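Both lines are retained for reference:
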Amino acid sequence: MNPNEQDMPPADPAPETPAEPDLAAELAALQAKNTELSDAYLRAKAEAENTRRRAEEEMSKARKFAVESFAESLLPVTDSLTAAISIPNATPEQLLEGVHATLRQLTQALERHKVVQIAPPAGTKFDPHHHQAISVVPAEQEANTVVAVLQKGYLIAERVLRPALVTVAAPK
């Protein structure tokens, strides 16, 4: 033995410091929290995916059946036209009366689905958002006003489906 070793007291095994059990407990707590958060994340991700899938299915069904109500409201118009052509000896007056009745049915069906005519009366200020000027003509009325409607336009829920074709008064 080395003479210096005799003078030294035997080395004590390193005592556990109080920090080590705290670190182990903290590590276990963090791992449990990590597991909990991972589980919550996976559940939230699955829920978001299910919500997205359900929304896609609903959109697909909405697109597929969007015109169902509109088509259903046009069926009486189809029935009226079919009845009109099935009368073998109809007079022109009867046919005209039937056409007027059918037009009323069609107009009502369109209005139920928020399709509204654009037919500005003469003298109405020209609106490029709702009217399309086909020509400018000299007229006795104020400039840039509608003189005549050549073809009615239509709005669907406040959006222009087709502008009215109009002639406009020329500036004097």
In short: The chain has a mean pLDDT of 89. The chain is about 55% helix and 20% strand. The CA atoms of residues 27 and 33 lie 10 Å apart. The helical segments are 3-7, 19-65, 68-86, 92-112.
